[in-house]
Amino acid sequence: MARYLFIHQNFPGQFVHVATELVRLNHDVVAIGINGRGLAGVRYLRYKPRPLSQYSSVTPAQDFETKIVRGLACAQVMEQLKKEGFTPDVIVAHPGWGEALFCKDVWPKSRLVVFAEFFYSSSGADYNFDPEFAHDDLQTRARLRLKNSVHLHALQAADVIYTPTWWQHQQLPLEYRNKAHVIFDGIDTTIVAPNPYARVLLHRDKITLTAADEVVTFVNRNLEPYRGFHVFMRALPEILRRRPNAHCLIVGRDGVSYGTPPRAGGTWRQVMLAELGQQLPFDRIHFLGGLNYADYLRVIQLTRCHVYLTYPFVLSWSCLEAMSAGRIVVASNTGPVREVIEHKVSGLMVDFFDISSLAAQVIEVLDAPGAFAQLGQQARQTVIDRYDLKAQCLPQLTTLLTT
What we know:
This protein starts with a strand and ends with a helix. It folds into two domains: 3-186 and 389-402, Glycogen Phosphorylase B (Rossmann fold, 3-Layer(aba) Sandwich), CATH 3.40.50.2000; 199-386, Rossmann fold, CATH 3.40.50.2000. 36% of the residues lie in helices and 18% in strands. β4 (90-93), α3 and β5 (111-115) form a beta-alpha-beta unit. The longest helix has 22 residues, at 62-83. The chain is an alpha/beta fold.
């Protein structure tokens, strides 16, 4: 039996499957986080960073200060565990919030495995990708460089690194790529599977939609430009004008996960609705907010066309889940999407900014889904072959952590 420590602000996050598997294998598993939740068989400890009474006057340094405070608070919990006699054989940490900063200072000999989700860059990725919101000056670039400080500390200290996609692997500094493995989080294809009987009841409009209906879907954790919400909304008037029987289901909250709120205040949904106004038939557009997983899965399973857009950034689970459900996915031709979708083989790709092409492609799918059915079948096969949780990803990650 080995001892494992998982560190993630929102535990279990990406570690949910492997932590559960290690418990099943009778290992001793402990986790540390701020929010999140516990898992059966996992001892979960929360740390509470103290609020800073005064930030540095050097504005670009303030984000790093916050992460140092979090790292120190997390290290205090590690010290508590050490005093209790717990020494992990393996520490698995997400470094993004500073929690991995001091792992080696508490346990120098423990094997540190770092989950490298994203390394920031001022070119070739999300920064200034979208000219509508571009803002480039020295202060902004300085803040971006300093955001990598906690990542660089973690990458240097790590014994092993893993990252979900090859595109994310290529964002890492060259000197760390040789110890970085590419292992996706994994999709449970037995659960996320085609379901011709899927149905969704829309209480507001007293409508029940099924897989026989003409449905287009769009899913984000939060509705924001990083995931192409503005582009999708601008394509909707033409899509729904040309397809008068189509309904659009939009899943997502009104917060911000990755970018920034609108400069004038409010939410991105309010911004887009104000811009588009009367162009939208609101009786056929359904904002569902955040859903529990079972309800979200039914939405994905019944769609005729699922739209997935993203800046060159971290790949969303929803893209691969739509593929696993055998749906026809129209996606942005951006990294890392190109890694998982082959155009006209396992999905359809359009330029992120080309609103007309997006609308035309969705309309074509809605008009003749049978002509594209093989894309959904191949999409599912791609996920089974490369991203299946039980057959591919979980065994790879478990082997990485246990050998």
